[in-house]
Every structure is written in C-alpha cells, then in structure tokens.
User: What shape does this take?
Amino acid sequence: MIEGMKLTTTGLHKASAELTVAGENAASSSEVVRSALNEVFKAINEQTMHISDMAERFEEFSQSLDNINVKSHEVVGSSKRIKENADKGSEELKNLILSIKDIRVLFEKAEDRIEVLGNDVGKIEEITDVINKVAEQTNLLALNAAIEASRAGESGRGFSVLAEEIRKLAEQVMESSKSINALVEAIKSETNDVTTDTALISEKISAQEAVVENTVVSFNDIQKEVNNSLAEMKEAYELIDSTVKEKDKIINGVESLSATAEEVLSSAKNISATSEGEYTSVQKVYNVAKNVESIADSLTNNINKFKV
Assistant: This one.
C-alpha cells in the first residue's frame, strides 16, 4: 500500500513538476505576449494621436486653403475690373486722339484761312496804294485845271468850280485811303498776332497729341500685362480650386483613417484587456501548479518518513 502511495505521489510529483514547468512556460509566454501587446497598444495609441493631430492640421490647412481660394477669387474679380477700366481708358484715349486730330485739322484750316486773309489784306493795301496814287494824280490834275480855268477868265469859271470839286473829292479819297491803310495795318498786325498764336497752339496740340499717343502706348502695355496677369491668375485660381477639391478628398481620407485608427485602438484595448485576463489566469494556473508540486513534495517526504 505504501509502495502504491509512493508510486502515486511520485507520479503526482512528476505531473505537478511538468504542470509547473508548463505553467511557467505559459506564464513566460503570456508575459511576452502581454508585453508585446502593450508595446503594440502604445504604438497604436501614439499613431492614433498622430493621426488625430494630422487631422487637426489638415483641418487648419483646409481653412487656410479655403481662405486662399476666396481671396484668389476676389483677386481675379479685381483683375477683371482693372482690365475693364484699362480697356475703357484706352478707348477714351483713342477718342481723345481722334478729337485732337480733328482740332488739328480745324486749326490747319484756320491757319490756311488766316494766310488767305493776310494775302487779301496785302491786296487791299496794294489797291489803296493805287487809289492814293490816283487820288494824288487827280488832285494834281484838278489843281492844274483850276489854274487853267482862272487864266481863261469868265468863260472858265464853271470849269474852275468843277475842278475845285474834283480836287476836294480827290482829297477826301486820299483821307479815306489813309484811314483804310491804317485799318489794313491794324488788320495785318492782328493777323500776324493770330498767326503767331495759332502756330503756338498748333505746337501745343502736337505736343499734347504726342503725350496722348505715348499714354496710349503705355495703356496698351498695361492692358497686355493685365491680360497676362489675368490669365495667370485664372490659371492659379483653377489650380487652387482643383486643389480645394482634392483637399476635400484628402480630408475625407484622413477622417476615415482617424476613425479606423480609433477602431483599431479600441480593438487593441480589448485585446490588451483580454491578454491581461489570460495572463492572470495563466499566473493562477502556475501558482496552483507550484502549490501542487509543493504538496507532492511534502507528501513524498511524509511517506518516506512513514517507511522508516
């Protein structure tokens, strides 16, 4: 009977020792798994935090990009208005040049008329010179006729009166001719002044025309630059608008990734909790195995004592 108990205790001791070793190995493996799961959990937790932070940064980036999109749209609108104003200004300058050219034509006609007037005044002066000469000659002839009439006595009295009247008329013609000459000289002086003034005005018009033409050239250059800038701004706006659309896709992807990371983190928490439970259970099994082994050792010792 004692031998049977000894065999039993020996088997129990062996089994408990194997159970202890198995429990120890299981506990060690469970510890390794638990430690690895904790590291995985920490990594997933950190990754989830990074993804959450990235989502916040993307949200800020999204707002900034939306603001840039709005501002770029406003810039494009302003550029269009600038182009419209530049086109309008260029058209007004072209009209101004046409008006200046019309004024130049009118001034050239006025200059031609003033020149014709000067020529006519010169002709009038020539005519008055002829009239003066004729009047002087008539006056001289009338004087001679009066002298001859006085020599003729009573028979030449009537002719003498006629000659005197002719002389008076000749003197009146000469006085009128002098007045006409004075007026002609005044007209010539005024005409010369007008000619000088029109020449100065013509020079001013030419200078103004040149300035306006240069301004038109500058406006054309501005229009070209505005058109180029507007095209580039439109291209930039289209690129930004396309980026905004792609940004929305990225934001959705990041949000989906963040949600997935949260789910993975939750699963990792559950796995970690399960691992902790399994580790505790294995530890309990290991402790029980140790207790059984201890009891088997004690029982073997007692049996050996009883045999003695």
